[in-house]
Amino acid sequence: MKEMNMSKGALATEAFLGELDEKFIEEVIQEKKPGKVLKGPWGFALKTVACLALAVILGMTSLSVATASGSIRAYELLYKLDPYLAERMSPVEETCVDQGIKMSVAGIYVHGDIVDIYVNMQDLEGKRLDGTADLFDSYSIHTNLDQWGGCSLVDFDEASCTATFLIKAGLYDQKIDGKKLTFSVRRFLSGKREEWVELPQIDLSELITAKADYRPEQEVQELIQSHIDHAYSGSGTGLPMLLVPNEAQTIAPVETGARITAYGIVDGKLHVQVYYENISTQDNNGDIQLVDENGMEHVRSGCAYFWDKDRRGRYEEYEFDIPLEELPNYTVKGYFSTGAKLYEGNWRITFPIVNHEE
Fold this sequence. Notes:
Layout lengths: L7 H25 L7 H17 L1 H12 L2 H10 L1 H4 L8 E4 L2 E11 L2 E10 L15 E4 L4 E11 L4 E10 L8 E11 L2 E6 L5 H4 L9 H9 L6 E2 L24 E9 L2 E8 L2 H4 L2 E7 L5 E2 L3 E6 L6 E7 L10 E8 L2 E12 L6
Antiparallel strand pairs: 1-2, 2-3, 3-6, 4-7, 5-6, 7-17, 8-16, 9-14, 10-11, 11-15, 12-13, 12-16, 14-15
């Protein structure tokens, strides 16, 4: 391998990227395990962590993409900041156009048995892409061997209406350099509204003495079995206790896509139930948190979720294990990602994975 002199800045960047790689790899490997489909609140939580980490290096990443695409000015700037990283990007000239959307490989970076692939999707005819663009688990990564992979949005250029995605891929216990890889996309979402909303309608001081209406055990068993994903995670064992939707408690926290359907104390714990509409076409999702008097956010201790009878929407019930006498010190807050529009097409590109450092 070619010898290179690394500055302190380069070493710091390399260390951070290495740490991010390990976290990302752990996430996608967990997704691959049988029975471990990270949807709903779990997928949201992991995506949030990945996006926050990527945001820190976004400035550097954007320059890397521009370098791979042939921007001399971007290359010169990146080289001044970190010549080691600038020299590692390899341009790949592969494109595919469908439905007026062009997908292209901006560049690849091979490190060990892992490859980072920067893919651009550009709207040539309008403004169908935006900063909320999501491939909606419709992408596929193909090689002739068993592999893992994951994808995240890392940049959006409004002027050119171009979304840049980072695809990480690797083979299990095998070298990826020299292999061919096919990346395909069937559909994407755009135009999502992401909001944090306070829910003062849920008065926690009144709930302590109020009676909650919850479902019989047999009904809970049927509901949980109707969901193909991991249905419950919490501090307890066995089946969770679930609320019956209560029309009197219905709250519409956002314009469309989600509504609070019930809340109350069940077995000494606070439960808040949310219904998300049109999961398969809009990927409406969210989360609920408690906020204390100091502004500190407290996440749920458990969650159960199940489909409605038409399997179009999903109920998610969040559980909080906080002493009842302390509940009046908290307020309820929700995150909601709703209202996305679905676009379909057939984008597919195949390219070799080459490590130009060797």
